[in-house]
Structures are given as C-alpha cells and as structure tokens.
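Interim report, section 4.2 (structural modelling).
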Amino acid sequence: MIHGKDMTTLKNDRFLRALLREPVDTTPVWMMRQAGRYLPEYRATRAQAGDFLSLCKNTDFACEVTLQPLRRYALDAAILFSDILTVPDALGLGLYFEAGEGPKFHKTVRTEQDIAQLPKLNAKTDLGYVMDAVSTIRSALAGQVPLIGFSGSPWTLATYMVEGGSSKEFRFTKQMMYAQPELLHALLDHLAESVIDYLNAQIDAGAQAIQIFDSWGGSLAHREYQEFSLQYMQKIIAGLQREKDGQRIPVILFTKGGGQWLIPMLATGADALGLDWTTSLKTARELVQGQVALQGNLDPAILYGSPKSIERAVHAMLDDAYAHGEKTGYIANLGHGITQWVNPDHAKVFVDTVHEYSAKYLG
Ligand code: CP3
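Predicted structure of the assembly:
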C-alpha cells in the first residue's frame, strides 16, 4: 500500500502499479477528458461557474468536476481538472474561449521580441489556483484513487501561442520552424523550463502521476518530431522530481499520432507511453519489450456504437494488450479525449468491461 503526504492509505493503487509494471489484480482504467461536457452534472457546474475558465480558476468547482466522473464510474485514477493552456495564459497571452470556437489568445508569439518578452514562470504564484485545486482534490479523494497532474508538451503549447488559438495546418508555427528554427527553439526552451516548474509544483501540491499531452506532435515530420517535440519532452522528464514521500512519480508521455516513434520515445525516461487508436497495441507491446508501460487506445468514436459493440472492442483491445502473456504494464484508456456527444451510459460500459474482461488474463 502506498502512503501519500497526508499518510492517507491509497485504497486503490492499481493505476500506479501498472505504470511501474508491478503486478495488478485487474486492468486499471481512466478516460482522457473524463470530466467534460458529455456529463450533465459537468454542464450544470459549468453553468454555475459562468464559463470554462472560471470553472478552472475556482478551487471548489474544479474539485467538484474532477470528482463527478468518479461518482458514476469505477475509474482507477482522477485527473486534475484544468487545461494545458493555463501556462501560456500565465505567460501573459490572455486566454479566452469564444462559444463554439475553442481557445484563443489576445496576443500571439511570432517574433524574436515576443519571445524575449515572455516572463519567467513562477508556477507556485502565477498558477496558484492550479496548485490549490491539486491539493484540494487530493484531500477530497481521501486515498480513493491516485491523482494525475498534467501539462501540454512545449511543441503543443507553442502551436497555440504562435497561431493564437486552435489550428489544423499550423501555418505560422511551421513557417517559424523552417524559416527561423532558432526562434522556435528559443520558445520551446522557455516552455520546457516553464513546464518543469509547473509540473514540479503540481507534484509538490500532491499530484501522484504526470501526463504530458503532446496532442499535435503527430503533425510533425519524422526528423522534426525528434528535434522540436521529443527533445523538449526529454528535457522536461529529466527536470522532474521523480519521487515524493518515498513514492516514485510515474510520467506518461502521450503523443497523438506518434505510434511510429515509440522506440525514440523510450529514451526520454518516461514510465509509460500513451497510444492513440491508429497504433496496434499488440505490435507496440512487441516493440517496447516491457521497458515501459502502455496506455490506450480505444477510438473514442467507438463509444457512439451500441453497448455490445463497445464490449467487443474492449475485448479485442485487452486481447492485444495481453497477447504475449504480460501480467501488467498496461492501463486501459481511450486513444484521445471522450467527446461531448457520448452517452454517459456508454462510458460505463467501457469502464466496467475493462475490469470484467481483464480477469481472463489477470485473474
Ligand atoms: O482529462 C480531463 O478530464 C482533465 C481536463 C482537461 C481539459 N483539457 C478540460 C477541458 C485536460 C487534460 C485538457 C487538456 C487539453 N486542453 C489538451 C490536450 C489534450 C487533448 O485533448 O489533446 C488540449 C489540446 C487543450 C486545449 C483545449 N481546451 C481545447 C482545444 C479546448 C476546446 C475543445 C473543446 O472540446 O471544446 C479546450 C477546452 C476544454 N478543456 C474543455 C474541457 C472540459 C471544454 C470546455 C467547455 O467546457 O466548454
């Protein structure tokens, strides 16, 4: 049994055990974006808060929505309710959300001067509301399941900062990458330092595992992925506090669209790699040879299907995960965030089927 900073016994530690490739009684499962708009109770709390950012910045509301999916489903981990874009916001870009349009920034970062003007982040003060949320959620969980902290990768954060919001083509970021690579490197370096400070502060506040979301790493060409994304995630992992109160803090690296780069990812020192649904879990297990745990990778769109078809897809996923006689090193998840259109009852079928069917391999 694992003890936290408040010495509360962690009642369910199978998520941390699987990350560290220790034996587990059943497959741990959580869902990216498990607190979100598909849940009516989330929509109600967001309405009470006024808008999404107020939800993130109010400790009680952020704690409430973090716990909501845990009341409905037998999840094996909680994830801090916040957003990856709080970091650029704290760096002075002015984050806002326009209904139906996704995130936007008042300022963009495109010139040498823009980059030179970015302040040095002090996460404990500049993002104090996130740290308050982490410690409040950790106490409220009372050891029920571990709490995951997270950050965006430098590359993913840079795309939002350079474009000024969401993008499909990454026109200005890629222009900077090919026309003035040294500028982009300066920005990525600043972000890597900021993320190290941010994640270490989350660990100090009580986060028990960390996930780095490299949501747009998959848009990069082969060489550029290593140079502009992976290199900086490696730097972050090297700068993290890897132990707290005698417990290892596992790190999960998730590059969406990164299935072809699993071997180079092994060199980062991550404990686990997240996979999206375009990668074969069975082949990935063969490739990584037990050196890291794997997490994923059900297509979130499968949750639009019938309960029967969800069960079948989960069975096939677990058959792949344990195809080579493994007994651990696997965390079930979706291959990306759950969408707002999913029927909450279907998410329950996903979670329960993981636990039930994994007895075939772990029981
Ligand atoms: O997983 C969780 O439950 C924790 C909460 C979480 C959110 N965002 C809440 C959120 C996490 C881990 C994130 C990470 C995040 N945010 C990423 C990386 C993960 C990924 O999905 O690839 C990215 C790229 C963002 C940036 C971001 N935030 C976008 C593009 C959007 C709009 C997209 C949309 O779904 O509308 C957000 C807003 C956002 N972040 C919402 C939630 C629940 C929806 C906002 C709302 O309530 O209206």
